[in-house]
Amino acid sequence: MFRCNFSLLFCLFCLETDVSLSPSTQANLRYADILSNLASRCQTPMGEACALNRPFLESLEEAREAMALIEEARKLLQEPLRLPFGELGDGREWVERAAKGAVLEARELLSLMRALFIFEQSSQLLEERAAFLPRMWVFGRQIPVLPAVATQLENALELNGDIRDTASEALYEARKRTRALHRSIKTKLEALLANPKFATNLRENYFSIRNNRYVVPVQTQHQAEVPGIVHNSSQSGQTLFVEPQALVSLGNELAIAQAEVENEERRILAELSSRVGAHAQALVAGFHACAQLDETQAAAILAEDMQANPPKLLEAESQGLCLFQLRHPLLLLQNTNVIANNILLEAPARVLVISGPNAGGKTVSLTAVGLCALMVRAGLPIPAEATSQMPFYPSIHALVGDAQDLSLGLSTFSAHVQALSQICSNAKPHSLVLVDEIAAGTAPREGAALATAILEALLEKNAHVFVTTHLEELKALAHVDRRLGNARVGFDEKGMLPTYRLHLGSAGNSSAIDIARRVGLANAICERAQALSQNSGTALGTALAEVAAAKEAAFAEQQAAAKEREAAQKLRVAFESKLEEVDKQRTTEEIKFRQALKAELEFAKQHIAKLLEALREEKNAKRLQTAQTEVYERIQEQQHKLHLAQHPPLPPAHAHTSAPQAPLPIAVGSMAFFPPWGVPVEILEISDKQATISAGMLRSRVALAELRPSSAKPKTTPASSSPVSPLPQEAPPFSSTTCDLRGMRQEEALRALEQFLDKAIRAEEEYVWVIHGHGTGALKTALRNYLSNSPYAKSFRAGEAGEGGDGATLVFLS
């Protein structure tokens, strides 16, 4: 029989084992508030118990493993998924009772049934992710999966905790008989109540149940008129609750049937309880594993809420502590706007003296370090950057606040010194010690001497020490003893408010008078105090203030320079990115344009070759000559475009590298050479660096830069680039069957088209091509509207894919 006391084992597991982390230190740092926040994020009472009693770990490796486990749970949250513990109760006590032979109630078995289904879901979820959640799967393997037991419980129990009729055949038959007897008794009762003679003996016309028997309310004086068994009476004695004699036999049968139902129900519960008890050890282990997983998941949620990270853990003998962007855990959990600070304590320094104004954040910085040290000992991530480093301190001692105890006759100072004495005695080597307002409450000079001696004693133990103070001698000591470092909390002189930002490397003023003025002390009193302070100021205080001011100014300049460098870097990166984007876009567009031109030229060559071949077969010399003229012009135009795309002209800055050319006379009426047409052209008009040119009936508006001196000769087209031989310069811009109107205005194009059609009719041409291009479509529409009403045109259609497409129109002449 499984008889181990699991509750006792669980409590022993959760007990704190490290007595060096004293309750007073935990109370001073309010560590219990961290555990309360951890417990509030648990889903189960078992998880809450684990969280509130989370133990401090004994070794650095244990702490690393605990944090790694929490990081795995954070991965699960990011899916986002949570372990389904919402309805998981603590069933360990019921399981232990079942193991001892007790019969559990239906509601207890129902809760265990839910637990079994939760076990199965949780185990499956973790098993599927065992590869990247190996530590969580260690607990997942401890969760029992008992589908047969869960199914048996589900088949026997209703969701409201009742036993199902189908739990057994005997129960089904017994309940069926019971319901039939209930119906028979009610039918007879309703017949009696409907009898007027019987009803006159009743106090009221109804029936009820007393002691599991059906009764009617009979007036006491009419008892003799209603024979039967009296089961109860009213408080006044005026009414008797009588089971009519005619129903007694049926009532007895009902009582027997109900007893059979109860016996069968008890037998079923005993069977189910025995089945649960047989797996008691595995079930208790499963509840314990779920408790640990619930607490781990709560720790992951807490870490997410605080944006916490596991720091790099160091051996206690390590000389360094580096907490980057540290925020106070409790302030974060209160949804307070927390100022993040860097806290560094690097060799040879082992003591950090924090000074500055009251309510400026000295104690917040001190307790933040202490809380993080306790959280590390408990294996919890801390609210600092992941690059932070913290030693695994063997003991942590904190003295924060007023330790006055009137019951022991101790003053504030006496209690403070007594606590310091205990810390000096109990601190282990390489411990962490935190003291708020060390040696305060007595004469400043003696207090400074006492504080110095205490720090020296703690340094002998190689402890890391953080103290807050207003003692100027202690601040000055950090300037001459390399084992001590200074830090101060900021104070805004203009706004007369603390900044809560910690500045390392310098001591701070207390700003007591400014704080007093801010909290409402009369201005006259503050002014007087200011005057007295200036008259009695010491050289040490003045020197410390000057050093702090100089460091503050240097820090401000450094910050401003850093911001300017950052802004310049952002501008440079943005400019380079934009320049790279522009270069890529330009390169892409050039490649696309060149490819398009090359494809167009190749297509034109193929089309023209087919056309010339067809004309040769017709053996029409006139049409062959005209087609050759058109072919040459098209090839020259396409090759010129391709040449410009592949070899764009140099910008003006590089003009001196080009060979000098004859000056082009820029004047209306002068002649020039236009390479795309391959013929001399006349300049008709000049405006805005563009010229209107003409060659025969063809007119166009082009850039002045595209024109060449009239003495220039077009380059001879290589034989490989065209299937036809070069033609003379005098070749017209279009042949007798092709009219190119691209670049003309609408009116000019219509006039040129009309002249062209007239000549074509007189030349007895059967059809002609009109090339107008795509453009905006206005010219194409106007030309086709004209052709619809022209006497020259019998019909027309747009060009097909191999004929120039919709940029050309084939006209059949009348």
Descriptive key words:
alpha/beta; 814 residues; six-stranded mixed sheet; 15% strand; four-stranded antiparallel sheet
Question: Which regions have little confidence, pLDDT < 50, spanning 5+ residues?
Answer: 1-19, 649-662, 712-734
Our count of helices gives 24
Backbone structural class: alpha/beta
DSSP strand count: 22
> Rg from C-alpha positions?
51 Å
Averaged pLDDT: 81
Strand portion, in percent? 5-15%
Globally, the shape reads flat
Major sheet: size, sense and barrel closure?
6 strands, mixed
Element layout with pairings:
Elements: H1 6-14, H2 23-29, H3 31-40, H4 45-52, H5 60-77, H6 92-99, H7 106-128, H8 134-140, H9 147-156, H10 169-194, H11 196-199, E1 208-210, E2 213-219, E3 228-233, E4 239-244, H12 245-277, H13 280-306, E5 312-314, E6 321-326, H14 329-333, E7 341-345, E8 351-355, H15 362-377, E9 389-391, E10 396-399, H16 412-426, E11 432-435, H17 444-460, E12 464-468, H18 472-480, E13 484-492, E14 497-504, H19 512-518, H20 523-535, H21 539-618, H22 621-646, E15 671-674, E16 679-687, E17 690-695, E18 698-703, E19 738-740, H23 746-762, E20 767-771, H24 778-789, E21 793-798, E22 808-813
Parallel strand pairs: 5-9, 8-12, 8-13, 10-11, 11-12, 19-20
Antiparallel strand pairs: 1-2, 2-4, 3-4, 6-7, 13-14, 15-16, 16-17, 17-18, 20-22, 21-22
